Amino acid sequence: MLLKTIFPRFNLRGSILNIDDRRHEVKYMCNKCGKLRVMFSLCDLKTEDLASKGYIEITDIHNCVESKLTPITLYVDASYSVRSQFPIEVEKTKTTEPLPGLDIPLPIKVKMGNREIEKIKGFRGKNIRSIKISDKLRQTNFILDISNKGNELSSTSKMSLVTVSMRINKKVSEENAKKWLEIIASTIETRVMLDETVLSHLLVYLEGKIGEKPEEYEKIEVEFLLSNSHLISNESLLTNFEENKSKIFPDWTKVEHSYAAKIIQNCSASKHKTLWEVYETVKDKQTLTEFLSLIRELRKQEVIKVEKMEFFTLSDPQTK
Predict the structure, then answer these.
(1) pTM above 0.85, yes or no
(2) DSSP conformation letters of the chain
(3) What is the pLDDT of residues 58-78, one digit of tens each?
């Protein structure tokens, strides 16, 4: 295949990207199963919580005791050290009472908090009248209520940690809309972190699609949307793209080739931009759907890499 000869394959440990020394490492040993788990992230994890509390909360879901999928809340400080960990129970969230000496909350029953999803340009509320995402991992209901008219439906993720409820236009196919809700709930449940500002963009993306059956490529795009992903490429790949773009993407217009080149340029290994930072550079001339389509195709042809935040197992005492 032509692509394999034009573009070198990505190798995170090799010399093509050469960015391992810039990754942050979050590593811990699970108190329940003893697995050593690690996440390498290009994200600096600098958030309001880190500034105000001295730690952030992230989630790792892995096959734990008896191979049961278990979500673990990790409390990570500014030096990327895991200060404490708690397995998540569906009926439990957190209080503001700290553990002695650690300033980390204890896991006890409290009410879910509510956060409003911002309505942004591009979302008209014609097909989606309201949405509520009940996220027990982050102890928050994310809500946008445009109208109380329409048909109500909901879907819950596999571990019952995320429920997405929606009110849709009566003309929209409930069967297809339900499939979208299943995808959203399952995707949010597996996120290490959730940037709530992305939910506004998610609604823009869904507005014109909610009544159609989701395609496999659209599931990938939702994954892009809801992940704290970085887009990675380099100057060599940009040069190869410029020289061979008409062969690799013969059906693309000159405008699409131009936008793709700009995206690749903004993904160079020295910049480490997130998907949303790259989108900011083209959003005035591209819709979100068009942008995600280009990202998907560039990733498929290995011109860029989409790196999301996720944990891996380094060692497992049960396999020794």
Answers:
(1) no
(2) -HHHHHSPPP-TTSTTT--GGG-EEEEEE-TTT--EEEEEESS----HHHHHHS-EEEEEEEE-GGG-EEEEEEEE-TTS-EEEEEE--TT----SPBPTTT--B-----PPEEEEPPP-TT---SSEEEEEEEETTTTEEEEEES-S-SEEEEEE-TTSSEEEEEEE-TTS-HHHHHHHHHHHHHHHHT-SS--TTHHHHHHHHHHTTTTSPPPHHHHHHHHHHHS--EEEB-HHHHHHHHHHHHHHSTTS-HHHHHHHHHHHHTTBTTT--BHHHHHHTTTTTS-HHHHHHHHHHHHHTTSSEEE---EEEEE-GGG-
(3) 999 999 988 888 999 999 998
